Amino acid sequence: MTTELMFREDAYLRTATARVLAVTERGIELDRTVFYPQGGGQAGDGGRLLRAPGEAVEIIDTRKGDTPDRVLHLPAPGSPVLQPGETVTLEIDWPRRYRLMRLHTALHLLSCVITAPVTGGNIAPDKARLDFDIDFSQLNAERIERETNALIAAGAATETVWITDAELDAQPELVKTMSVQPPRGAGRVRLLRIPGIDLQPCGGTHVADIAEIEGIRVLKIRSEGKRNKRVEIALSGSG
Ligand SMILES: [Zn+2]
How far is CA 81 from the centre of its chain? Predict the structure, then answer.
């Protein structure tokens, strides 16, 4: 049992129809989905599954299943129970997802403005952060904002490229995030390229052009330990 990961080919898909494959206490599995499961630091999607008669199952979170191509849609308690074989219409919470896409893509820029190994990261709908192995004195909020916003203002189309495991092994410098190694074993690895700025393995959802981020502000910079300096950002236009 596998789920077609439609968000991988088109992160802007908000809706689709799918067939229910299984319903267990762990969640609802579908033959294809536009819901991104929590992973790579990015929060899982919420939204709704609409039954033919107009009955909705609220999805409060999305998680990976036992294998990378299985996705568990978590229904709100008390939701109608779907049956395997029925067809549903999927609707993600798009405003929330779009904020996640903008913040996620902004972190790619942040990892280039701050040239240090990334030790961790997280993307929530309202804020995102990266942790760096860097000396605290190297982090200046005003400079980080100015340089990141200059890249955003200039704009650049993002591209998804795939390389083989062997090609990635030959270019270990592509992997900036020490805590999140790209998934191997499938034979190929997905990369996000921002031409002239960044190229790194990433399975998340990104905006098509970095200009869509509009702008960021640094919320805080703090030490989380000797090798962990945390830079937290938000979108400058929204709260
Ligand atoms: Zn990414």
Answer: 28
